[in-house]
Amino acid sequence: MMDLRKETRVIMKQMLAGQMAAMKEYFDRSTRALDEADSGFAPQAGLFTSAQVVAHAAQTVEWFITGAFAPEGFSLDFDGMDKEVRAVTSLAAARAWFDKACATLQDSIEAHSEAEWMAALPPGPIMGDLPRIAVFNALTDHTAHHRGALTVYTRLLGKVPPMPYMDM
Fold it and tell me: What SUPFAM superfamilies would the database entry show (predicted)?
């Protein structure tokens, strides 16, 4: 006889992994028209460049996973995180960071039990007391926001951004 609880755990992890794989695929597709020559483009002075937006998305994937399991919760060193992102000048380097962050995220799904994902986040200003699993919707929303911004960057560069949901 099938162990229903074990099957439910497997399905939950498969759903999380699928959601995160789709998030990455949509982000990659939405930004595919940008190339290394577009790394330094920003719509105006002071805004993140194309490379920096991708780096910020990568950094945030890491930030959510680290913060979800850190006893103190999420880092609030936004100045330090901003400096780290603003140092990125290469779209290729930013994409490599995003790939690495998403691989770490996928590993984290498997590394933690269903009970750990359902446990409450530490109290605090960032999603305090919600179940850890809430970070997955936040990650999806965050990357969707930034792939939308990068679609605008792409159009401002005179390029046509690809439709992110095609060819799945």
Answer: DinB/YfiT-like putative metalloenzymes
Q: Which two tokens stand for residue 124?
A: 């605090």
> Which amino acid is located at 78 in the chain?
F
**Domain contains 14:** no
- Count of domains forming the chain: 1
How many whole angstroms separate alpha carbon 101 and alpha carbon 33?
21
- The Cα 30–Cα 27 span in angstroms is 5
Domain membership flag for residue 38: no
The amino acid present at 136, given as its one-letter code, is F
Each of the 168 residues of the chain gets a pLDDT tens digit; together they read: 456 565 566 788 899 999 999 999 999 999 999 999 999 999 999 999 999 999 999 999 999 999 999 988 899 999 999 999 999 999 999 999 999 999 999 999 999 998 999 999 988 899 988 999 999 999 999 999 999 999 999 999 999 998 877 664
Q: Which residue has the tokens 């939950």?
A: 12
- Sequence-ordered list of residues with C-beta below 8 angstroms from that of 120, at least 6 positions apart, any chain: 129, 130, 131, 132
Of 106, 113, 107, the C-alpha closest to 22 is: 106
